C-alpha cells in the first residue's frame, strides 16, 4: 500500500513538472481543464459596469520588503514580499461592512503579455498577486495568542508569589518561624512583631494589586483575540474568501522622446523590478510609488478566472488595467535580461482562453482609498458654527414634539368627554358599585359592639 501511494505521488510530481510554456497544447490539456480559465482577451465594448468597488492602498515598495526574488522553476520571474509586513492591500465590495480584503504577496513578470486588449498583445504584463486577508490574519492571531500565553505565565508567577506571602503571614500569626522567635530576637517587643506582620500584609497587598492589573490586561487581550477570531470566521464564510486577486498592468515600449508626451509612464516600475530581480541589489534605490504608476479613475476590467499555469485553479479575481503604460526601451531591455526572457520565442505567457457566454466582464474604476468605519466626530473638534447648528436642530426637534403634544392633548380630552356624554344619554352605568344593580349587594361594615352598619347609596336624579 505504501509503495502504491509513493508511486501515485511520484507520478503526480512528474506530471506537474512535465509542463512548460512551449508545449501548452500537448501537456496543459490534461492539467488545465474546466471553465473560468485565464488569460482572456479584453474587449471593452462587452464589459458592463460593475456593482462593486475596488479600493487600493499601497505604501512605497522598498527592496528591504522583498523576501526573495528570481526566476522560479516554473519559468516565471517572481518577487515575494516578507510575511507579517504588509506592503499593500486591496478591498473589494460595496461599502464598509461588505467587502473582502486582500494583501499584496508577490509580483510576477510575463513577456509577452498573457492577457490581450482588443486582440492586441503587449511587450510585458506585470501581475500583482494578493492573498486573501484571512490567510495573512492567521499569523497575526498566532502572535497575539503567544503574547496572551506569556501574560498568563507572568500571572502564574504572581500567584506563586502571593501564595508564598500568605504562607509567611500565616506562620507569623501562628508564631511559627517568625523573626522574633530566634535567640537573637528574644527581647523583641510587641511593636516589632506587629511591624513584621504589617510588612507581610503590605507584600500581599502589593502582589494582589499587580495580579489584578495582570488579570485586567489578560482579560482585555483575550476579548480582543476573541473578536479577531470572530471576524476571521465571518470573513471565511464569504463567497470570495478562498479567492486570490491579481491586478495586471500592460507595459508597452516607448521611446524616451515620446514618454513625456504620453499619459503616464511605467519606467519607474520597470526599473524597480529590475533592481529587485538583480543579483546585486542596491539598498539605496528609490522606493516605488504604485499610485503614480497605476493612476486614479482609470478603468479596470474584472472577471473570475484561474491561475494561468498548471494546475490552473479557478479561484482568481482578475483586474486588468485597460490603459497600457509606456516604459523606456532601455529599462525594459534591462528587465527582460534579468528575467531571462530576452530573445525567447515563446516567453512565459499562456495562450488566450475562450470567454464563454456564462462569464461576465465588468468594468470598475481605480480608487485609492479604503473602506473605513463611519467616523463619530467629537463635539470639541467641531467649529463653533457647526456646534450652533446642532443645537438649533435639537431645539427644533423638541419644539416639534411639544407642538404635536399640545395640539393632540385637547383633541384627546374632547373625544373622551364626548364618549362620557354618550354613556350618560343612554342611561347605562357600568359601575359595579351601583345600588340599582341587582347583582351587587351594598357592602356593610361591622362595628366593635357587633352591630352592622350598612352603606346606603343615594341616587341623584338628573333634572332637565
UniProtKB/TrEMBL annotation:
Classification via Pfam families: Carb_anhydrase
Keywords noted in UniProt: Lyase, Metal-binding, Zinc
Keyword Metal-binding applies: yes
Coiled coil: none
GO molecular function: carbonate dehydratase activity; zinc ion binding
EC numbers for this chain: 4.2.1.1
Catalytically driven reaction(s): hydrogencarbonate + H(+) = CO2 + H2O
Enzyme class: lyase
Domain Alpha-carbonic anhydrase: 17-364
PROSITE patterns linked: ALPHA_CA_2 (PS51144)
Gene3D superfamilies given in the database record: Alpha carbonic anhydrase
Record-linked InterPro entries: CA_dom (IPR001148), CA_dom_sf (IPR036398), Carbonic_anhydrase_a-class (IPR023561)
Region (Disordered) residue spans: 424-449
Disulfide bond as UniProt keyword: no
Top-level taxon of the source organism: Eukaryota
Family: Belongs to the alpha-carbonic anhydrase family.
Protein name per its UniProtKB record: carbonic anhydrase
Amino acid at each position: 500500500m505504501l509503495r502504491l501511494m509513493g508511486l501515485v505521488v511520484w507520478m503526480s510530481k512528474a506530471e506537474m513538472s512535465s509542463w512548460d510554456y512551449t508545449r501548452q497544447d500537448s501537456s496543459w490539456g490534461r492539467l488545465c481543464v474546466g471553465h473560468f480559465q485565464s488569460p482572456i482577451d479584453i474587449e471593452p465594448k462587452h464589459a458592463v459596469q460593475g456593482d462593486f468597488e475596488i479600493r487600493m492602498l499601497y505604501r512605497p515598495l522598498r527592496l528591504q520588503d522583498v523576501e526573495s526574488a528570481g526566476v522560479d522553476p516554473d519559468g516565471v520571474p517572481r518577487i515575494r514580499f516578507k510575511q507579517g509586513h504588509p506592503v499593500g492591500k486591496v478591498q473589494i465590495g460595496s461599502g464598509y461592512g461588505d467587502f473582502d480584503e486582500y494583501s499584496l504577496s508577490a509580483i510576477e513578470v510575463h513577456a509577452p503579455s498573457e492577457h490581450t486588449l482588443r486582440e492586441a498583445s503587449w511587450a510585458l504584463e506585470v501581475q500583482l498577486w494578493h492573498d486573501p486577508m484571512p490567510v495573512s490574519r492567521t499569523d497575526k492571531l498566532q502572535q497575539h495568542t503567544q503574547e496572551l500565553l506569556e501574560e498568563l505565565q507572568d500571572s502564574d508567577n504572581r500567584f506563586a508569589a502571593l501564595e508564598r506571602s500568605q504562607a509567611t503571614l500565616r506562620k507569623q500569626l501562628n508564631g511559627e518561624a517568625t523573626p522574633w522567635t530566634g535567640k537573637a530576637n528574644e527581647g523583641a517587643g510587641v511593636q516589632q512583631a506587629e511591624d513584621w506582620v504589617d510588612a507581610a500584609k503590605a507584600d500581599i497587598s502589593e502582589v494582589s494589586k499587580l495580579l489584578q492589573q495582570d488579570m485586567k490586561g489578560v482579560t482585555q487581550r483575550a476579548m480582543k483575540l476573541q473578536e479577531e477570531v470572530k471576524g476571521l470566521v465571518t470573513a471565511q464564510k464569504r463567497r470570495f474568501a478562498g479567492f486570490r486577486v491579481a491586478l495586471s498592468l500592460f507595459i508597452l515600449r516607448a521611446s524616451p522622446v515620446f514618454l513625456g508626451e504620453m499619459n503616464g509612464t511605467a519606467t519607474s516600475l520597470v526599473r524597480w523590478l529590475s533592481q529587485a530581480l538583480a543579483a546585486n541589489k542596491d539598498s539605496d534605490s528609490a522606493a516605488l510609488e504604485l499610485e503614480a504608476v497605476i493612476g486614479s479613475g482609470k478603468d479596470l476590467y474584472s472577471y473570475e478566472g484561474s491561475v494561468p499555469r498548471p494546475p490552473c485553479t479557478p479561484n482568481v479575481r482578475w483586474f486588468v488595467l485597460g490603459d497600457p503604460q509606456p516604459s523606456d526601451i532601455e529599462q525594459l531591455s534591462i528587465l527582460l535580461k534579468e528575467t531571462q526572457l530576452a530573445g525567447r520565442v515563446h516567453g512565459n505567457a499562456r495562450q488566450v482562453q475562450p470567454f464563454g457566454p456564462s462569464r461576465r466582464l465588468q468594468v470598475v474604476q481605480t480608487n485609492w482609498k479604503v473602506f473605513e468605519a463611519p467616523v463619530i466626530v467629537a463635539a470639541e473638534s467641531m467649529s463653533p458654527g457647526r456646534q450652533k447648528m446642532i443645537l438649533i436642530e435639537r431645539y427644533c426637534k423638541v419644539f416639534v414634539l411639544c407642538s404635536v403634544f399640545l395640539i393632540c392633548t385637547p383633541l384627546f380630552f374632547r373625544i373622551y368627554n364626548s364618549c362620557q356624554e354618550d354613556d350618560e344619554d343612554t342611561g347605562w352605568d357600568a359601575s359595579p358599585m351601583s345600588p340599582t344593580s341587582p347583582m351587587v349587594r351594598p357592602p356593610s361594615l361591622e362595628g366593635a359592639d357587633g352591630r352592622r352598619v350598612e352603606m346606603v347609596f343615594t341616587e341623584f336624579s338628573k333634572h332637565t
